[in-house]
Each structure stands twice: as C-alpha cells, then as structure tokens.
Amino acid sequence: MSEPANDPILKVEDLAVHFPVGGRLFGGSRRFVHAVDGVDLELKKGECLGLVGESGCGKSTLALSILGLQAPTRGRILIEGRDISNDGGNRMDRARMAQMVFQDPYSSLNPRQTIRTTLEAPLRLHGVTARSEIEDRIADMLRRVGLRPDVAKRYPHEFSGGQRQRIGIARALILKPRIVVLDEPVSALDVSIRAQIINLLLELKETFNLSYIMISHDLGVVEHMSDRVAVMYLGRIVETGGWETIFTEPRHPYTRALIEAIPDPFRHGLSTKITGEIPNPLDPPTGCSFHPRCPEARDICRAPPIPDLEQIGPGHLARCRRVFDIPSWTPPAF
Ligand SMILES: Nc1ncnc2c1ncn2[C@@H]1O[C@H](COP(=O)(O)OP(=O)(O)OP(=O)(O)O)[C@@H](O)[C@H]1O
Asked: CA spacing 20 to 30 A to 271: which of 176, 218, 264, 326?
C-alpha cells in the first residue's frame, strides 16, 4: 500500500443528519432518526478510508452528504478547504470533486442506454461537447477499466456482473473526480471476480491519484484496501485508526466483534455472530449506545452522557469508557 500524502482532501466536522419520521412524542414534538450524529473525519489525498459497521449505522447517509445528495442538519463538509455543506447550487462542481461507485452493477446502469450514452451524459453536462473529445475520453476510460473501446455501442444486459462494475467505475471516473465513494463495490459480485475489481480499484487510485471512502459491512474487503478504518455504530464513529492497528489491536468491543465475525474460509465459512439487535435509532440506549450488546458493559457504560471519542494511541481513537480496563484482545485462531 502506498504512503498517502498528509493534506486532507476532505474534512467532515461534527456532521449530523436527522430525519423526521412519522408520529409525535407525547406533548407534540416531532420524532427524528439521528442517522448521523456528530461525525468528524478526515480523508487524506491518495488515501483509502474504510467506513464499516452493520446495516443502519449511517454509512450511506454520511456518504450521500459528502456527495452533496443529502443536506446535513448540522456540521460542515470541506473539500480542499472549501465548505460545501450547503452549496446545493454548486452541484456541478461537487460532481467534479466526488463520485460514487454503487454496490449493484445490475441495477445501477440504465438498461435502455448504450454504454456510450451512459458515459457521455456526465461529460456533456459538464461542458464537454466536441465529438472527438467525447469519443477519446470514453475510449480511454474504457481501456483504463480493462474493456475494449468498441463495447461502447453495447447495452448493459450484454455484460457480466464484473464487466458491468467496470462500466460503473468508468462512469464514476469519467469526470476525473478527486474523491470516490465506493459503496460495497464487490459485495454483489461473484467471489471469483472480486479480487480483480479490488485490484483494478487500487490500480486506478494510483493512476488518477484518487482518494477513496470505501463503505462495507465486510471487514475482509476493507482489510485489503484501506489505509485507515472508521467504525460506525448508531450514527457515530466508535473507533478509528490505521488499518493494521484496527485489525491487530482493536480496542472497542464493537470493532472486536466485527473482526471476529469475518467469515473464515479455513473454518468452512463459520464465523462468530454479533449477538443482539441494533437498538431502535428512535429510542437509543442511554450512555454508550453499544452497551446492551457489549460483553464488557458495566453500570458506568449505561449512565449518560454518551462517551467521547478519545485518543488512545497515535492516530487511534475509541469511544469507550472502559477502553483501558477491558482485557487485551486475542485475534481469532484461524
Ligand atoms: N430518508 C430517510 N428517512 C428516514 N430515515 C432514514 C432515511 N434514510 C436513512 N434513514 C435511517 O437512518 C439510519 C441510517 O441509515 P443508512 O442507510 O445511512 O445506514 P447504512 O449503515 O448505510 O445501512 P446499509 O448498510 O443497510 O445501507 C437507519 O436507521 C435508516 O433507517
């Protein structure tokens, strides 16, 4: 993995996204889901940040805010130092800065459009109108993702899942964005071609000096791709650090449980399951929101307020009151 440069290309400061939901509390006040609740993070140039956590923890809402597709309730998003939190009028600029590769290559491409039309649309929208330039850029991008330029005249149904994901990657990169959000980019693909797509994404990151935010519930994929990892639970980051620190010395009991749940092929696909359900986000537990599922929870964990995200080592932060009291972690025996 290459050493990323130090400058942050993206800074997220105290970001919150609260969605109003049906029903009112006794007394008439509205109810809100706190999908993202006070997230701070930085993405350095050339870095891949893995964003992990179970379904419903707020990963997609955070990603959509970064892409400008979801207005924040509170906080700031700075791309290359510019606050873009509420500049909806600058969507065009934002599309040049940040793009997304979607999880499902089957539903993310329009079945009625040729690949050329799919790749041409963002170029035209951003003022590239000369036919020869459009042709050159489409052909170049298709080659970069490992496809022949003549596939441009074909339709999505003519391609396999892996080829469609290559087309999805070409669409995300055609405007030469600086940041790419990868939303579970290989989880819908055959296991046999996942490694090819992961390697392609790593190669393109170097070629175009991209910075990635990689969303996944699958820590196995994140381990391969990420320089740093942020673990989310119920709208908040509960642990963050370099990938090696997170995978070899996780300190938050939730991170440990996620790592222990990585399916291990040597154990015939068996893995430890995290016990209990994610709490109802409309009625979150007091104190540490993980305490009802945490094997290390004590009374102190149940008491308000919510624990802070505290530095526990170089570049390593965790949101756990018992972080220095709980036993050291032994990696699962493979
Ligand atoms: N538009 C919305 N209106 C109301 N609640 C929403 C909305 N979008 C998301 N939520 C809620 O916000 C919380 C976070 O959802 P989000 O989709 O961001 O989680 P996620 O971690 O990306 O999950 P997944 O991995 O399943 O995509 C969930 O409780 C979800 O039900």
From this structure: 326
| C-alpha of residue 13 to centroid of ligand 1, in Å | 20
The closest-lying atom of ligand 1 relative to the alpha carbon of residue 20 is: 4
Distance CA 218, CA 32 (A): 28
Among the listed residues 309, 312, 310, the one whose alpha carbon sits nearest the alpha carbon of residue 235: 309
- The answer to whether 140 touches 85, Cβ cutoff 8 Å, is no
Q: Is 221 in the pocket of ligand 1 (CB under 6 A)?
A: no
B/e letters for 196-209, b = 16+ CB within 10 Å, e = fewer, are ebbebbbebbeeee
Protein residue whose Cα sits closest to atom 12 of ligand 1: 35
Counting from 1 in the atom list of ligand 1, the atom nearest the Cα of 53 is: 21
Q: 67 in ligand 1 pocket by Cβ < 6 Å?
A: no
ipTM for the assembly: 0.97
Tokens representing residue 188 in the block: 């819908």
Digitized pLDDT (tens) for each residue of the chain, 334 residues in all: 555 556 799 999 999 999 998 766 566 678 899 999 999 999 999 999 999 999 899 999 999 999 988 999 999 999 988 887 766 546 667 778 899 999 887 888 999 999 999 999 999 988 888 999 999 999 999 999 999 999 999 999 999 999 999 999 999 999 999 999 999 999 999 988 999 999 999 999 999 999 999 998 878 889 889 999 999 999 999 999 999 999 999 999 999 999 888 776 544 445 556 778 888 888 889 999 999 999 999 999 999 999 999 999 999 999 999 999 998 888 776 5
